[in-house]
Amino acid sequence: MAQEDLRICLPPLAQDDQFYTEKKRLSDSRGLRYEFMLPVSLSSDEITKVFNQIIHTARLIHMDEIELYFVEDEEFGPFSPRNEIGSLNLILRKIDCLLRTASQQAIQVLQDLRSITLLKLSSVGTNSEAVDQMVIDESLNNTEEDNILLTWAENNGVRSRLNIARFKGAGRGLIASDDLSVGDVALEIPESLIISEDLIVGSDMYNAIKDLEIMTSDTMLTLWTMQERFKPDSKFKIYFDTLSDNFFTGLSFGIEALAALEGTLLFEELMQYKEHLRQQYDMLFPMLFSDYPDIFKKEIYTWDRFLWACELFYSNSMKVVFTDGKLKTCLLPVAGLLNHSLCPHILHYGRVDPTTRSLKFPLSRPCERGQQCYLSYGSYSSSHLLTFYGFIPKGYNYYDFIPLDFDAADGDSSAKSQHMVRRTQLSKSNGSHTYGLPYKLIVHLRNALSCADLTDSASDGKETDREVLEAILSIFNPMLEELGPSDGPAWESSSWDVKLALEFKELQRIIISSVVASCNSGLELLQL
Ligand SMILES: C[S@@+](CC[C@H](N)C(=O)[O-])C[C@H]1O[C@@H](n2cnc3c(N)ncnc32)[C@H](O)[C@@H]1O
User: Which InterPro entries has this protein been placed in (predicted)?
Assistant: First the structure.
């Protein structure tokens, strides 16, 4: 009966989504729906079929720029752990909403759909390629410092179902103290314990520097932190005391590590960021020393301490939307101990709940007791994570790509067309159609080289494709040469920064070699 049909609606593509046009094109070409009618008499097989249709739409809604670039026409996902977790959580929210008012018969169908969704969620990340496998360093666990921090946090209103543990190569992290399910709040930080620009307003420092043209709220917070860190009566003393004396990010790379990166894009980027920070410091000091000697003490505001504070904010801060609607950079005691994963447990956070006036960290996929609970810092490439966080995630990072800028086909050099490649063996399409390389890149080059279209006759297409593959090789072979041979196991004994630089170079080598290998096997195919 019609009145017993269940209606599940996914949100239509948002017109203000910056990728609306591309998503709409894909959605139309795939005939995706946003409304699903489920008769309550559906069998389990039929429910699974409907679930598959719903997840295809949810995945498209959640696609980001990189996923949209690399998607093949016949590819329906999963596209990345982040996309999958976001999509399954959207479906779960819709089901839970309907369950509140569902009839007895409808409840059964919704429960079946919910079980399928939860099953899928628990299987995300079981493929080891996608997951960071960190090893607990038992020798360093249960330190007095960790207990003091957790007790202080609890006394100040933090609610946590997580404990501190130490991990080889990653420092501290948080592990589940009991089995946590999807939707459970793993951690809740009261607004009063969030360190943001709001703490500075009204202070002497604030009144002195707020009108300076070069001052931003982030810079003010950095300067405040440099001082607050050493105040014996600071409300946050226990938190500051647990912070590391050094952050070991790419911004602290020494000369040898930078030299090891020469020839990579990252080398240029690191040099620019370092230069930018130095310029920022030079604009502030000695000017603030002479204008406000009572507030800015020379021994506190040294270059090394400024760099320390910048690295603290880059690697430990989060952007939070407060109840006044403002987005602010914040330091969050305890939450700042969550490590990053390509396959995170916590994906949706960052908005202060107006009812509880707290920031909650709910789980988007289950986390068993004793397992590390991971956050997603964002869809970041390894070069970004190395620069600002000082690590390269283990496993396949979907956001590691090498950008390629081509002049527009009409010769207008001001109009660039942005393309990219990533490790090709993970391309879903390894047939001769695109040789395992991104479809959009191949089409662009086919058009640029001789306007051959994808459905042209075999012989013409072959000649164009040969030129396309040779053009790609002419870009990537020199890159591979520039990187030189693999550095071998000797780097294991190098200093932390050289090790990280060489690890990054090895990652670049893997991506570039895979592109070269795809081109070469494509050329062989074309000779057949
Ligand atoms: C927000 S803090 C997390 C807590 C930190 N591990 C600690 O001991 O204070 C971010 C820092 O943790 C480390 N980290 C986070 N995720 C990591 C990962 N997946 N692998 C290695 N290190 C990681 C990096 O040093 C990064 O700069």
Answer: SET_dom (IPR001214), SET_dom_sf (IPR046341), SETD3_SETD6_MTase (IPR050600)
Could you identify the atom of ligand 1 that is nearest to the CA of residue 341? Answer: 19
Residue 38 carries which side chain, given as an amino acid letter? L
pTM: 0.93
pLDDT surpasses 50 at 22? yes
**DSSP 3-state assignment of 8?**
strand
For ligand 1, mutation pick of 339, 374, 500 (most atoms within 8 Å of CB): 339
- 320 alpha carbon to ligand 1 midpoint, in Å? 19
* Architecture of the domain delimited by 195-331: Alpha-Beta Complex (3.90)
Does the C-beta of 333 come closer than 6 Å to ligand 1? no
Task: Tell me what the pLDDT averaged over the chain comes to.
Answer: 92
What span, in angstroms and rounded, lies between the C-alpha atoms of 157 and 141?
A: 24
For residues 317, 321, 323, 328, the Cα torsion angle rounded to the nearest 10 degrees is 50
Question: Is 163 touching ligand 1 by the criterion CB < 6 Å?
Answer: no
CA of residue 340 to ligand 1 center, whole Å = 7
Q: Which CATH number fits domain 132-192+332-393: 2.170.270.10, 3.30.428.10, 1.10.10.1450, 3.40.50.300?
A: 2.170.270.10
